[in-house]
Amino acid sequence: QVDPKVTGNAIHMFESTRLMRDGYIYGGIYAMVAIFIYVMVSFGNFRTTLIILLPVAVGSVWTVGIMDLLDVSFNLANLVILPLIIGIGVVNGVHIVHRYREEADKSVNVLSRSTGQGVVLSSLTTMVGFGSLMVANHQGIYSLGLVLTLGVGCCLLASITVLPSILELCTAKNWKL
Fold it and tell me: Distance between CA 5 and CA 11 in Å, rounded?
């Protein structure tokens, strides 16, 4: 604002950082839109699509809340994993809802079947794998591992708590998914 023609290393770093941050955020938004469209086309039902994406939404809110409690913020190192967290959270929802749709007896908890165990095991192995980055001395690598572990963990918790509750509500209301 002082001089619009100013140049130099500081300005270059500032602009590069801003553009990368914005690119990561837009990448997360584009990933979510693409996933929404894909799930909507695959399942052919708007309500089902929203239910599948619910663990991601809830898990994301929980992740940001826990990050605030731990005084961890998004940075250029950990913003790159937003689409990965979204993808893993969506996969959990897809598997659980698929199992729910296949189950003839809707009163049976879908997590008591092998699908629930598979979702938990898949998320835990991802958390352990990326959580191992937290032993790094580099703060960027450390924060990448921490945010990914928190994000996948929160999406997992939402998938095994919130999603089955919503599916029970769907059964009680006799909603077709």
Answer: 10
Record the tokens describing residue 119, joined without a space: 């979702």
Distance CA 41, CA 47 (A): 12
What is the C-alpha separation between 177 and 48, in angstroms, rounded?
Answer: 5
Average pLDDT per block of 10 residues along the chain, 177 residues long: 72 82 83 91 93 94 94 82 86 92 79 85 94 91 92 95 92 86
Tokens of 85: 């967290």
Quote the pLDDT of residue 84.
85
Distance CA 41, CA 37 (A): 6
Q: State the pTM of this model.
A: 0.84
Assess contact for 31 and 86: CB atoms under 8 A.
yes
Q: Would you state the pLDDT for residue 106? A: 74
Element spanning 120, H or E: helix 114-131
User: Within its chain, how far is the Cα of 136 from the centroid?
Assistant: 23
CA–CA separation, 51 and 163 (whole Å): 7
Rounded-to-5 percentages of helix, strand, coil across the chain: 80, 0, 20
Provide the pLDDT for residue 2: 65
